[in-house]
């Protein structure tokens, strides 16, 4: 590496032979110093050579940059405005609109075509679209709630070309919200359900023990008592307070305890029987399809002692409808002079599936204004939000199929008429109907066994074909008579366990208006 350094080292070695002992030591130190500098010089030159060799070597091909997320183009949908007959007489004919969804820009443009090629359009950003309400009766109808001004909304109902187009539009709007909104979608909500016969006496100032599930029976843990529920449902009997007065009272006691202004979703009353539903403000626009009803009995169906009210709500796409009210045997609340009944009977619950087992179920022991104690139940319920495909909008060539190999039903009837099955689901564009059963038999005069082979059963086509979507879908089957189109029983089948290339068995009971009317079994598969 250094040709000049070699003679210098040789010269030092020659001088060593003629030097004395002290001089040898000094010479040794000098030699070590020279060698150190020499080795340092070699190291620097070696490093320089390696760097030059490295720069001369051609660089390896650059790794391709990670693909940028593909932007979603603006999608347009041709729709018609759904109007009432009264509005139709004013505007003359149904109005055509174009809905343009800009996912990347986070906005929806609503364009109305007018005469003389003029256009009237409005742009709504993602935060101004408050709610999407899918019609349960018309599969291609969608209600959109827009925020026009602060705390003022406007709803418009649109008719899409098909249920598939409606679902694609909803997917895009949900995707837009996921992309631009920082608000999380809940997958579980907590619900308090309570019922109380107030004995025509005003309530005490504090009813905290009721809506915190304190008292007898299965109560909440002390740690979770202070956590507010998402939804509160209060059912009362012999309630002498006015409707508005009662709602204001409930909202006030909840605000004192939770510091949250709960919003009233629905109120239904029949004389002194009342049902009230209150929700957190952030869930108000997630509630849809509120339905209420009442039943009068007695003299002229008016003056009887026994009455009932029903109220159902649908939070997001909740897997349950809750009811509370006065039943045939009177209020389901324990009286003060009797031992409390089993909590499963005391809590308004209907026929709940196992996953809806209450976190708390019991009655209070400190509210004494009535001879009945308030009854409480606390539940956690799973909800699903709008499905968004991970693969983008599905292609028309992608199609899943729901196929039945056979169905056998045993129905409670002395009739020997023919039967058919109707198939309903939110994943279908429209309901489908089977042909009449091809065989039937009876071993008991009060029951009839009816059977359908694959030739009599329709092949169903879901509007979306992704497994993640189909896993959350269900079918409602209704067995009807051919002569009177009367339903002899209904059942629900989950598609989750039916997905695959091999047919799976199902067996469940049939029920009609709360009464078990038979059972149904069969073989089916969901082919994706």
UniProtKB/TrEMBL annotation:
Q: Where does the record place a coiled coil?
A: none
Biological process terms in GO annotation: actin filament organization; endochondral ossification; endocytosis; negative regulation of insulin-like growth factor receptor signaling pathway; phosphatidylinositol dephosphorylation; regulation of immune response
Task: Read off the SUPFAM superfamilies from this record.
Answer: DNase I-like
> Can you tell which superkingdom this protein's organism belongs to?
Eukaryota
Any one Gene Ontology cellular component term annotated for this protein = Golgi apparatus
Annotated localization: Cytoplasm; Nucleus
| Gene Ontology MF: a single term | SH2 domain binding
Instruction: Please verify whether the record's keywords include Phosphoprotein.
Output: yes
Q: Where is this region: Disordered?
A: 324-357
Q: Which UniProt keywords are present, listed alphabetically?
A: Cytoplasm, Nucleus, Phosphoprotein, SH2 domain
Name under which the protein is recorded: Inositol polyphosphate phosphatase like 1
Species this chain originates from: Anser brachyrhynchus
This protein's gene is called: INPPL1
């Amino acid at each position: 590496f250094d040709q000049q350094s070699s003679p210098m080292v040789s010269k030092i070695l020659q001088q060593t032979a003629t030097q004395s002992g002290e001089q040898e030591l000094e010479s040794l130190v000098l030699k070590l110093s020279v060698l150190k500098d020499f080795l340092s010089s070699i190291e620097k030159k070696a490093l320089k050579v390696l760097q030059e060799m490295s720069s001369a070597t051609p660089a390896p091909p650059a790794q391709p940059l990670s693909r940028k997320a593909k932007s979603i183009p603006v999608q347009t949908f041709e729709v018609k405005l759904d109007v009432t007959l009264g509005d139709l007489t004013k505007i003359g004919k149904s109005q055509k609109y174009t809905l343009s969804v800009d996912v990347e820009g986070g906005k929806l443009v609503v364009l109305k075509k007018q005469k003389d090629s003029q256009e009237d359009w409005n742009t709504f950003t993602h935060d101004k679209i408050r709610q999407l309400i899918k019609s349960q009766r018309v599969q291609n109808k969608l209600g959109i709630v827009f925020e026009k001004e602060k705390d003022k909304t406007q709803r418009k109902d649109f008719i899409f070309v098909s249920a598939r187009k409606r679902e694609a539009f909803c997917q895009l709007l949900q995707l837009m919200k996921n992309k631009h909104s920082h608000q999380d979608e809940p997958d579980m909500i907590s619900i308090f359900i309570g019922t109380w016969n107030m004995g025509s006496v005003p309530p005490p100032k504090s009813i905290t023990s009721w809506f915190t599930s304190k008292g007898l029976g299965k109560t909440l843990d002390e740690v979770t008592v202070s956590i507010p529920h998402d939804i509160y449902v209060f059912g009362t009997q012999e309630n002498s307070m006015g409707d508005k007065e009662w709602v204001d009272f409930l909202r006030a006691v909840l605000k004192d305890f939770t510091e949250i202004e709960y919003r009233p979703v629905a109120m239904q009353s029949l004389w002194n029987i009342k049902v009230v539903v209150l929700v957190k403000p952030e869930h108000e626009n997630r509630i849809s399809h509120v339905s209420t009803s009442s039943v009068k009995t007695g003299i002229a169906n008016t003056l009887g002692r026994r009455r009932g009210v029903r109220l159902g709500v649908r939070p997001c796409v909740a897997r349950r409808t809750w009811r509370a009210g006065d039943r045939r045997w009177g209020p389901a609340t324990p009286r003060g002079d009797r031992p409390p009944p089993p909590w499963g009977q005391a809590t308004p619950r209907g026929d709940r599936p196992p996953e809806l087992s209450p976190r708390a179920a019991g009655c209070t022991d400190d509210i004494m204004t009535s001879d009945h104690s308030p009854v409480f139940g606390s539940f956690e319920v799973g909800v699903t939000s709008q499905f968004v495909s991970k693969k983008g909008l599905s292609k028309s060539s992608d199609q899943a199929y729901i196929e039945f190999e056979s169905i056998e039903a045993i129905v409670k009837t002395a009739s020997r008429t023919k039967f058919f099955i109707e198939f309903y689901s939110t994943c279908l564009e429209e309901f489908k109907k089977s042909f009449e059963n091809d065989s039937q038999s009876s071993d008991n005069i009060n029951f009839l066994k009816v059977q359908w082979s694959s030739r009599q059963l329709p092949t169903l086509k879901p509007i979306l074909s992704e497994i993640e979507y189909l896993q959350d879908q269900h079918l409602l089957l209704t067995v009807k008579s051919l002569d009177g189109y009367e339903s002899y029983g209904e059942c629900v089948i989950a598609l989750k366990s039916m997905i695959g290339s091999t047919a799976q068995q199902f067996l469940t009971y049939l029920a009609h208006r709360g009464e078990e009317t038979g059972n149904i079994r069969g073989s089916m598969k969901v082919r994706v």
